[in-house]
């Protein structure tokens, strides 16, 4: 019967083995990962363009996503000025990101001001409403930029600066 149908017994056995090993969660994860894969690629390209090393913590968060990311935690992670710019290049394009944690990441005043400008850009797709900026060396100009961003962008509901 196998030969008359153009099927070989070993082909059938391998198909049965594939069914046994089928993991629906990994298949679903693969589809969701595809969404985050685009942002991972954009981030990778932004780092390459700036000649900066890719942040492994951020890459891990993209790779382990089983649903579209709503939070990115880069607390205790030094990005550096060029790495921070690479991060900013994807933040304003990510429509599901709600929380950005940058506590103790050595974000300086200039970087904070730049973040505020990106988040209040009317063309931004960003949905960030929670910023964690604690334990960073921020000065008064950063505070003024954060206040201006909150006034221009009512979506921001929480900023932590302790």
Account of the protein in words:
The structure is a single chain. This protein has 162 residues and is of the alpha/beta class. The chain has helices at 9-21, 24-50, 56-63, 80-91, 109-119, 140-152; strands at 71-73, 99-101, 130-132, 158-160. Helix 2 runs antiparallel to helix 3 (56-63) and helix 5 (109-119) packs parallel to helix 6. The protein is globular. The relative contact order is 0.11. Residues 4-8 and 22-32 have low confidence and may be disordered.
What's the quick description here?
Helices cover 52% and strands 7% of the residues. It is an alpha/beta fold.
Fold blueprint:
Elements: H1 9-21, H2 24-50, H3 56-63, E1 71-73, H4 80-91, E2 99-101, H5 109-119, E3 130-132, H6 140-152, E4 158-160
Parallel strand pairs: 1-2, 2-3, 3-4
Helix pairs in contact: 2-3, 2-4, 4-5, 5-6
List keywords for this structure.
4 strands, globular, 162 residues, single chain, alpha/beta
Query: What is the topology, as strand order, of the major beta sheet?
Result: 1-2-3-4
- The computed structural class is alpha/beta
Order of helices and strands: HHHEHEHEHE
How would you describe the shape?
globular
Tell me the major beta sheet: 4 strands, parallel
Radius of gyration of CA atoms, rounded to a whole number: 22 Å
- The percent of residues in helical segments reads 40-55%
Count of helices? 6
* Residue windows where pLDDT falls under 50 for at least 5 positions: 4-8, 22-32
């Amino acid at each position: 019967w196998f030969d008359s149908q153009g099927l070989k017994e070993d082909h059938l056995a391998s198909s049965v083995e594939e069914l046994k090993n089928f993991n629906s969660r990994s298949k679903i994860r693969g589809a969701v990962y595809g969404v985050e894969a685009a942002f991972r690629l954009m981030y990778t390209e932004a780092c390459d363009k700036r000649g900066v090393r890719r942040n492994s913590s951020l890459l891990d968060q993209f790779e382990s996503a089983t649903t579209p990311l709503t939070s990115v935690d880069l607390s205790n992670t030094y990005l550096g000025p060029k790495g921070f710019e690479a991060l900013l290049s994807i933040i304003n394009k990510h429509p599901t990101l709600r929380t950005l944690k940058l506590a103790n990441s050595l974000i300086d005043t200039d970087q904070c001001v730049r973040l505020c400008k990106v988040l209040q850009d009317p063309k931004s797709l960003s949905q960030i409403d929670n910023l964690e900026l604690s334990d960073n060396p921020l000065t008064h100009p950063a505070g003024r930029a954060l206040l201006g961003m909150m006034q221009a962008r009512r979506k921001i509901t929480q900023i932590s600066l302790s």
